[in-house]
Amino acid sequence: MSDEFDVIVIGAGPPGENAAGRSVDAGMHVAIVESRLVGGECSFWGCIPSKTLLRPGDIVAAAKRVPGAAEAITGPIDAAAAFGQRDYMTSSWSDHTQTPWLESKGIELVRGHGRLAGERVVEVETESGPRRLHAAKAVVLANGTTPVMPPIDGLDGVEAWDNRDATSTSTVPRRLLVLGGGAIGAELAQAFERLGSEQVTVVEGGPRLLAREEPFAGHELEEAFESEGIAVRTGVTAEAAFRDEGGVHLRLSDGTEVAGDELLVAVGRRANTRDVGLDSVGFDTSQRLQVDERLRVRGVPGEWLYAVGDVAGLAQLTHMGKYQGRVVGDVIAGRDVVDESDHRAVPRVTFTDPQVAAVGPTEAEAREAGLEVRVVTVGTGDVAGAYVRGNDIKGTSQLVVDESRGVIVGATFTGPDVQEMLHAATIAIVGEVPLDRLWHAVPSFPTVSEVWLRLLEAYGL
User: Fold this and answer.
1) pLDDT 10s digits, 71-100
2) Which of 147, 310, 322, 425 could anchor a disulfide with 316, C-beta 3.0 to 4.6 Å?
């Protein structure tokens, strides 16, 4: 096997796959290095298994909102069947369905841990021994992140779950503690409650769930959680953890204590930059990895080292990593492109019930950026399409408008299945569609998308 390539990608998750594929499409010879499974975190421990475990509860909740269908719900969710579907979706943690795509593109897969060993050089520890790869054009870091375990007294002795443990388990704990009220913690808290956990408690140090979204989104989600029995503790932090015959316990900053049979820690993720050889290429490893507008790693001379996906430190979302991979492939091929979306139109969805779908900055972020904004809000459930979908559908739809240009810069939707509302907002933001032009985009009836008409009417059009 030749060790000479045009491009070497370290990490075969979706961002790395897209960088490799785009480079191949531009006529380059590419190798991709992966130490675990082709498909990465998203396919096997993140997006795919977590959303698969959420889906049964979503379906049951949706049916219960519809008279006639509600009466057909006569028993609990079959957790074993849900775990079986999760196993099917992850191919039982085998990447045999993922590798044929690499082969079809002519991308060489090198299995093992890869690290930089000088300019355009990657050393890989394979099962058969070390292998030294050389890149004529570029190396792309796409090796993701790992969960953060905070410095809580006793935490390392309680066998806490991270997201991989939670999405790969085949048991439903009777009592589940969740430390962290961001998207991962919130999604898995609701998934296990609906799969059969009798007691779920979410502990969040900030003032609300989903701290990075609009305040109303976190408050609405907390109300929904409490209505179905999920306890939410905000504004408190965990100071100590221990496990005894009664389970795992967290001592909180307000002097109280909570207990469960398992503890899921979901307080954030750290970029995998510690064992990738950055020191061998002149990078100051005491600094956080950053990239420029063409996703080249700052602080490395020669403009040959790139980073995409979570390791790049931008929007840590699979779809954004895939976008970055495509941008990098074009840049390496010599096209005059830059990363625009990471700085102005990041779409994101928290797949709880209610869902929280948002794109662009929040109102507060837009104001902090110096924009003169106006905010318009309507009820997501206040259109005929929502009533058709069932009773008691709630939520909020909001636009953040840049008044100086008359265009939308941010949007947030909460409610059931609002993720399908998001791409229209993303297109409006990226395309900078003037509101008086957007008014002529007629939503079909009766759909929840009629919310767009109500929002524009609220704005005064």
Assistant:
1) 999 999 999 999 999 999 999 999 999 999
2) 310
